[in-house]
Prior knowledge:
By secondary structure, the chain is of the alpha/beta class. It has one domain (about 5-245): 3-Layer(aba) Sandwich (Rossmann fold). It contains 8 helices and 8 strands. The protein has an 8-stranded mixed beta sheet with strand order 3-2-1-4-5-6-7-8, with helices on both faces. Helix 4 runs parallel beside helix 5 (about 150-165). The longest helix has 23 residues, at about 100-120. It starts with 6 loop residues before the first strand and ends in a 15-residue tail after the last strand.
Amino acid sequence: MDLKDKNVIYIGGFGGIGQKCLQTFLKREIKNLIVCDLHDNKEVLRSLRDSYSYSNIFYIPIDVTKNESIEEAYKLAAKKVNKFDVVVNGCGLMNDSFIDLTIDINLKGVIHSTLKALEYMDASKGGRGGVIANISSVAGLQPNGMFAIYSAAKCGLTAFTCSLAYPLYYKYTGVSLITLCPGFTDTTLLDSVRGKETLTEYAEPLAVAFAKVKRQTPEICAEMIVKAVEISKNGNVWMLDNGEMAEIEFKTFWKPKLNTQQ
Length: 262
């Protein structure tokens, strides 16, 4: 996908990776950028508007834990720019002491947002297709003992996104769904993780190892995210780690056996 003059919605745009993604999208000379987040960040918006005058930049509040807030955000976005070409679901929380909130933000909110985005983007219903990019994690590719609840949510997100990328759906919607799994990235999400683990009383050795893991910069991560959107191959799962993009292919463990006697 050539991003020039496209309309982009970024949910969770004021996060550490999100802010760098906003800049990277704007460098592609997109037409409209809608930033959705729980709270406004006027300083970031002012800086973006000063630096990227080619694009129109809007802010719409959203609480991804509330479905009615998601619906209202998309309704307002449609009023501002009419059609969407790219939606990035980038909200995240890594704190297993908040079980329900971890699931709500990392999984349920993205599910509701994705389904709502499809309603507007579906080419068979008047949309013009496009790309929905859901940001999972390397913890969404395999089990993670330190953050079991976070990992469960992210693995669920990976499975959900891959499931909706079923070729039959794409044939009608024209919407590519891709899953992005960043490795350790130097943002506040990884700050002060002690006490946020699933089983904190046993996690000290894990926390020591966690602190030693090499991290990539949010700028590098953002560039890979935008590149994956530009590639926009339906069903792609990308691991974005230490500045390298690796396409992940999952092994098929089960296939249904058809009853040939019916």
